[in-house]
Specification:
329 residues; alpha/beta; Rossmann fold; seven-stranded mixed sheet; 10 helices
Length: 329
């Protein structure tokens, strides 16, 4: 039996383990890799290859980098390859409907959530930011909608209580590789029955904006702020203002026992008299009051234009005054 003919469409590191995995299977033949055009990256704005392109070149695979995948020459390419599948993972462009029927078994996507939850560009970030303790991976046959295609297979994973978005993404990308393999084999053998999503249960995970990282000290309790810190790492991070300057923070919520042991005028009950965002220097660290009279222990602070420092270094350098708070002018 001839190997399954595969096109691979992806760009970031998240897609790399699956491409590498497919290349180890003798009954799969990756005939072409489609990835985003080379872009300036980093502080030096040097043009660099995407992680997927680097792997493809090392494996001597043909690489295509159209500015727009809807270009007529890409349609012609896909038709001439006589593909069984196109595997698409975090490519970065919408696939036009006229291309979807070209591969024999369609375009197979690995999505980093248990669809229909967290449709969109940032499912890992929003799952963590929303306080989820479980998530997962879904393979689906993409259609003309945004992550609305039929579900093929799913794999559930836990989210660690301190796990950040990059850490979870690394685990999920590795788990996704064998899931794609199982999906392709099952579709080719006719053993997978696609099932429609329940669209009434859909939630959205839109692309991150800088404003998502702004800390709302009044409305959000400590655990919610911490979840957003984990979910929005490395960008946009979690930030506030201090003496008119933007500053990025890392912190962790403290237990009720720690709150009751603090010395600022009677622990938790006295915290209710402080403004939300109020800074509380203690011998055990630097604390800040959040919504619902919950408390975060600050670990690091990075003021705009300066290097990241520990909470104690920040407190000493700032010479904190009574009543000062984050989020003020």
């Amino acid at each position: 039996m001839p190997p399954l003919r595969i096109g691979f469409c992806g760009t970031p590191q998240f897609a790399v383990p699956t491409l590498q995995h497919l290349l180890t299977k003798s009954d799969f033949e990756v005939l072409a890799v489609i990835t985003q055009p080379d872009r300036p990256r980093g502080r030096g704005h040097e043009v660099s290859f995407s992680p997927v392109k680097q792997v493809a070149l090392a494996a001597h695979l043909p690489v295509y980098q159209p500015e727009k995948i809807r270009a007529p020459e890409m349609e012609e390419l896909l038709k001439n390859l006589f593909l069984d599948f196109v595997v698409i993972i975090a490519y970065g462009q919408i696939i036009p409907a006229r291309l979807l029927s070209i591969p024999k078994h369609g375009w197979i996507n690995l999505h980093a959530s248990l669809l229909p939850k967290y449709r969109g560009a940032a499912p890992i970030n929003w799952a963590i930011a929303s306080g989820e303790t479980r998530t997962g991976l879904t393979t689906m046959r993409i259609d003309a909608g945004m992550d609305t295609g039929d579900i093929l297979l799913q794999h559930e994973l836990g989210i660690g209580p301190k796990e950040t978005a990059p850490e979870l993404a690394a685990r999920m990308s590795e788990a996704g590789a064998p899931l794609i393999e199982e999906t392709l084999r099952g579709l080719a053998a006719g053993t997978i029955i696609p099932r429609p999503q329940n669209h009434s249960e859909a939630t959205l995970a839109p692309i991150l904006k800088k404003e998502d990282g702004r800390i709302d000290w009044n409305r959000r309790p400590a655990q919610e702020i911490y979840n957003r810190m984990r979910g929005f790492t490395p960008w946009p991070g979690a930030y506030t203002t201090f003496r008119g300057q933007t500053c990025h923070l890392w912190a962790e919520p403290v237990s009720d026992e720690v709150v009751s042991s603090l010395s600022f005028g009677g622990g938790g009950s006295a915290a209710r008299t402080h403004a939300r965002g109020a800074l509380l220097p203690e011998k055990d660290g630097l604390f800040v009051i959040c919504g619902r009279t919950t408390i975060l222990r600050i670990q690091t602070v990075k003021l705009e234009g300066r290097k990241q420092v520990s909470a104690s270094e920040f407190a000493i350098g700032a010479r904190l005054k009574s009543g000062e708070r984050f989020g003020g002018t």
